[in-house]
Amino acid sequence: MSLDATLALRGTRAGFDEFEAFLKTAKAREHFVYGTFRARPSMRIMDCARLQAERGLVNLVQKRVGRDFEYRAIRTSRAYYER
């Protein structure tokens, strides 16, 4: 089961380390659910997600799932370089 599917099942928000691991290992078009409407993402992960979107590593979207929304990061094909 993928990490984002696990997150959706447990109904909690993602941790910063989980998001960073996704950035390093994901292939293009894979997605990561970093929060839901009920379990909003932390400010730290939201800031990180926005920064990665500005760098072109992910596209950020909200997807309706039933009555809820998921906050998703979709990986682009741009390579991830560690600082």
Q: What are its keywords?
A:
83 residues; alpha+beta; 3 helices; 36% helix; globular
The helix fraction, in percent, is 25-40%
Instruction: Please indicate the percent range of residues in DSSP E strands (runs of 2 or more).
Output: 25-35%
Helix-strand topology string: HHEHEE
Order of strands, widest sheet: 1-3-2
Q: How many helices does DSSP assign?
A: 3
The structure class reads alpha+beta
Mean pLDDT: 82
What's the gyration radius in Å? 12 Å
**Span between termini:** 30 Å
By DSSP, the count of extended strands is 3
How would you sum up this structure in a few lines?
The protein is of the alpha+beta class and 83 residues long.
Please explain how this structure is put together.
This protein has 83 residues and is an alpha+beta fold. The protein has one domain. 36% of the residues lie in helices and 27% in strands. The chain contains three helices and three strands, in the order H-H-E-H-E-E. A three-stranded antiparallel beta sheet has the order 1-3-2. A hairpin with a 2-residue loop joins strand 2 and strand 3. The longest helix has 12 residues. It is globular, with a radius of gyration of 12 Å. The protein starts with a helix and ends in an 8-residue tail after the last strand. About 6% of the residues have low confidence.
